[in-house]
Specification:
The chain is an alpha/beta fold. Helix content is about 35%, strand content about 15%. The strands form 4 sheets. It has a 7-stranded mixed beta sheet with strand order 7-6-5-8-11-10-12, with helices on both faces. It has a 3-stranded mixed beta sheet with strand order 9-14-13, with helices on one face. Strands 1-2 form a two-stranded antiparallel sheet. Helix 7 crosses helix 10.
């Protein structure tokens, strides 16, 4: 706007030195500064509310992430092999000097399996399935211990095995006690059958009788019972779990483990199932191998050796017996053992020397196979004779690997 100098001076209370006739004007540009607008109450409330909810969401995300990380770390820690500290840690102190943790007593060794498992609470213990006041099988610390699952009514199968491949007369004299066979049997609901089992048990002394009813559902109890008994009462270099409808090429297996096997610890070998289609957990009450979510919540089992025959070193047997206390048993026995093996961080050794049927095998194949499944008791002797014949008619060098 344009204002005359005279009027402006008059407004300020000053007199002009210029004549009134002067027509001089001064142009003044006035910029009006508007005051900064303030937020309304509603806008302020909205901003505060959004800020609070943002903080809440961030806290919740942190808690969820932290919980998932804890669960993941806890799960991974369970899979750490309990023997690792023995092999890789050395102590140097005034009390013990320089020596391996393996030689330290459990009370002073923080990495001893008993100390490592002490912080966990056992869910169950297979020792409750020992028959009270029962006389346990005798054990003379064999090189190989065979744990053979059997049923009360399979007396003919047990007798056939005693007379054929389990007879230690077929062994060489390299080891004082080359192998021992123990049959794992549950009790029968039939009083007559139970009486026969007790008589057979007393006669041969090679039956480990559990207090559980003998059934497929209780097969896992039977196997864990055998592993626990082996770890506690019958130390051996190797343990072989097999069934009473299997033939074991026992002399070949014995010589292989004695001379050629280089994996003398952390050994879990057999016909390993690795196909996801076969490892998928079966659900549903009416199916034979069905397992409930509460028993095993995962969608797939870890790779495991088929239950008709697998071989374990002594350290693995002890670790399995200990770890089983923290996992509820479910009916799929071989998969259950595979879950324990996975938690212990042990890698299965897959071998083609375990076959599902004798069909198609020629005489010379018995210089290769260790265990054959689906064998009738009447055929045990014939297969044993084939193993003897293969040593004379087949001109093959010894196979020194698992494959």
């Amino acid at each position: 706007m344009k204002v005359s100098l005279k009027r402006m001076l008059a407004y300020l209370g000053l007199r002009s030195a210029y004549s009134s006739s002067s027509q001089v004007f001064v142009s003044i540009s006035v910029i009006s500064a508007m005051p900064r607008s303030r937020l309304s109450r509603h806008a302020t409330k909205v901003i505060v509310r959004v800020s609070i909810w943002t903080c809440v969401v961030l806290v919740l995300l942190f808690l969820v992430t932290y919980t998932l990380l804890l669960a993941f770390v806890d799960r991974q820690m369970h899979q750490v092999p309990l023997d690792v500290p023995y092999k890789k840690v050395r102590l140097l102190n005034r009390l013990y000097g320089k020596q391996s943790l393996r030689k330290l007593p459990a009370g002073n060794n923080p990495f001893h399996p008993e100390r490592l498992l002490a912080h966990r609470k056992a869910i169950w213990n297979s020792s409750v399935y020992y028959s009270k006041n029962d006389v346990l099988p005798s054990c003379s610390q064999p090189f190989i211990l065979f744990l053979i699952t059997s049923s009360p009514q399979h007396g003919d199968r047990r007798m056939s095995i005693r007379r054929t491949w389990c007879n230690s007369i077929n062994a060489t004299a390299s080891v004082k006690q080359p192998w021992t066979c123990i049959f794992l049997v549950g009790i029968s609901k039939s009083a007559e059958m139970l009486a026969q089992i007790l008589k057979e048990k007393e006669l041969y002394g090679d039956i480990l009788l559990g207090s559980y009813v003998d059934s497929y559902v209780n097969l896992t109890l039977k196997v864990v019972h055998g592993l626990d008994w082996s770890a506690t009462h019958c130390p051996s270099s190797y343990v072989v779990k097999t069934d009473d409808d299997c033939f074991v090429n026992v002399r070949l297996l014995y010589e292989f483990l004695l001379r050629y096997n280089v994996k003398t610890s952390a050994l879990y070998a057999g016909s390993v199932i690795q196909d996801n289609a076969k490892l998928k957990v079966i659900r549903g009450r009416d199916k034979k191998w069905a397992v409930g979510f509460q028993e095993y919540p995962e969608e797939y089992y870890p790779p495991y050796a088929s239950g008709f025959g697998y071989i374990m070193s002594a350290d693995v047997v002890k670790l399995l017996a200990s770890e089983s206390r923290f996992i509820v048993p479910f009916p799929n026995e071989d998969a259950y053992v595979g879950v324990l093996i996975s938690r212990l961080g042990i890698s299965p050794v897959s071998s083609s020397r375990f076959v599902l049927s004798p069909s198609g095998l020629n005489v010379c194949n018995y210089l290769f196979v260790f265990i054959v499944h689906h064998v009738q008791e009447a055929d045990q002797l014939a297969l044993l004779q084939k193993t003897v014949e293969s040593r004379t008619v087949c001109n093959h060098s010894a196979i020194t690997t698992w494959s």
